[in-house]
Write a structure and sequence with these properties.
There is one protein chain. Helix content is 39%, strand content 19%. It is built from ten helices and 13 strands. Strand 1, helix 1 and strand 2 form a beta-alpha-beta unit. The radius of gyration is 19 Å and the shape is globular. The protein binds NADP nicotinamide-adenine-dinucleotide phosphate. The site of NADP nicotinamide-adenine-dinucleotide phosphate (NAP) has 24 residues, from helix 1, strand 5, strand 7 and helix 5.
Length: 302
């Protein structure tokens, strides 16, 4: 991203501006830049997020043709940060719907190079979940367009939100203490603060387009993360030890056979599989390496 007025006053569009991470990124960008922000929310979002003189909210369904007001903002944008994500339990449909939304956003932009996808560590060429496979297709698409993707780890904040809150909820409800025989699947945790800092960097600086790691290294084992959550929510639990491969095969089979809640199973598949080698080969953003790496011990019960 070598042009587009990095750091200067301009227009920045943030989609998913009412999501947990999007909302925090909008707050930080307002504080850290002079930019005019256009926050895209879903038309069905519950409550309007807080107002600010340099912030305009546009409720837009990204699955439909974009209204002129958003197209104008995209035409003037020096960065577009795409937090929005359309969920679908089918990998093919999730990819199709999200790629179409990305196409609609990029089309009015002066340069697709200024598009920033908030991707995930679930995204890899060998992803097992529909979410991971579709995020990977979106990451590839953004790379073809010459834009930037941030492969964000599992956000482990307090209070817990998003997928981490789902995991904490499972630990609270299930009377089972799951551990792994052999190597446990890796978890790449990150604080929401670090995600917001990464977004500020790609908006504020001339960053070379590409895919970047936004998570702490080294990863932790899923067993370790579960142990931390269990310690924060003491209860009598039956200890179960299984090879990760068996669990992965079981969850994949249930999903294929459409037994059980498809969305939950996809979240479990997302947790159980990471392509460590691929993720650890990703570069970090300038200024991210060597920053505060306080231990990311699992936060307490939400
Ligand atoms: N939280 C994490 O640990 C984590 C880790 C890695 C990556 N990420 C990525 O970070 C982004 C934000 O995640 P999050 O956990 O803060 O919240 P999230 O709920 O996953 O954010 C997705 C957002 O997309 C919006 N959206 C969905 N369909 C839309 C449509 N058709 N038109 C307009 N907006 C639409 C949703 O609005 P509604 O909720 O109103 O439907 C929601 O605000 C996502 O792309 C997620 O994949 C999150």
């Amino acid at each position: 991203m070598t042009s587009g007025g990095a750091g200067g006053r301009g227009t920045v569009v943030v989609t998913g501006a009412h999501s947990e991470l999007g909302r925090r990124a909008v707050d930080r960008l307002l504080a850290a830049t002079d930019d005019r922000l256009v926050g895209v929310t879903s038309p069905w979002a519950d409550e309007p997020p807080p107002a600010h003189p340099r912030l305009t909210y546009l409720p837009v369904d990204l699955e439909r043709p974009l209204p002129a007001e958003l197209r104008d903002a995209l035409g003037a944008a020096r960065r577009v940060v795409h937090f929005a994500w359309i969920r679908d339990p089918s990998a093919a449909r999730a990819a199709e719907r999200n790629l179409a939304a990305i196409g609609r956003l990029v089309e009015p932009m002066p340069s697709p190079e200024w598009f920033v996808l908030v991707s995930s560590v679930a995204a890899s060429p060998s992803a097992r979940s529909a979410y991971g496979a579709a995020k990977w297709r979106a990451t590839e698409r953004v790379s073809e367009l010459g834009g930037t993707s941030l492969l964000v780890g599992l956000v482990v904040d307090e209070p817990a939100a998003g997928p981490y809150a789902v995991l904490a909820g499972l630990v609270r409800r299930l009377p089972v203490s799951l551990r792994f025989l052999g190597a446990a699947p890796s978890v790449f945790p990150v604080r929401g603060e670090a995600v917001v800092a990464a977004v500020t960097t790609v908006v504020g600086e001339d960053v070379t387009p590409g895919a970047y790691a936004v998570f702490e290294r080294p990863p932790v084992g899923l067993g370790e993360l579960l142990a931390g959550l269990e310690a924060a929510m003491p209860a009598r639990r039956l200890r179960v030890r299984l090879p990760a491969a068996v669990l992965l095969a079981g969850a994949s089979a249930l999903k294929r056979l459409r037994l059980g809640p498809r969305r939950r199973l996809d979240q479990v598949l997302t947790l159980l599989y990471k392509d460590d080698r691929f993720l650890l080969s990703l570069p970090e953003l300038p200024g991210q390496r060597g920053r505060d790496r306080r231990a990311l011990a699992p936060a307490g019960a939400p």
